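Now for one record.
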Amino acid sequence: MRSGTRIVLVALAAGVAGAVAGVLFNPGAIAPLARTELGQRLLQRALSSSASAPPPGLSIAKRGELAPVLKLRGLDGNVVELPADLAGRPLLINLWASWCGPCIREMPELQRFAAEQGPNGVQVVGVALDDEAAVRAFLGRVPVGYQILLDVPGPADAGVSLGNPKGVLPYSVLLSADGRLLKQRIGPFAEGEIADWVQ
């Protein structure tokens, strides 16, 4: 291959990579590709490849495999063990924080989706990576009907265990009725998106 052809091919590949990165990482342009399953997988791969190694002994969820056990405290003080305590129905776990603008914007959509689910529908659980007082104050202003659990943000938090090594919020996962990781979602849901995503 001639040097000029090689330069053109390298430039073309760099241009395509730049366009993909621009669509995936530019907040104003995130909708087209990042809202697709392919886009989410590419974004997940990019974030995972640039993440530092998880703490020793920390189990990290992988698609198709059973999710690691998470023991999280609810606002009522009781400890919930995920996914075991909610087994038997699909489970959407949404990680958020009261200071996260996109998290707050998607909460009405999560609430709407949760309210539409009957006794056999998808369960919704929010995991706040936040200070308990801030979570309580926020929920006093913006109440939701689905269960909220608490975790301390850090290198071994629930989000990292569920496959979000960079701690990007909001972050959602869908677990099967038997606790297997089916899907991962980096970024907020837009209106009407959740029902299609869980199918």
In short: The CA atoms of residues 59 and 98 lie 26 Å apart.
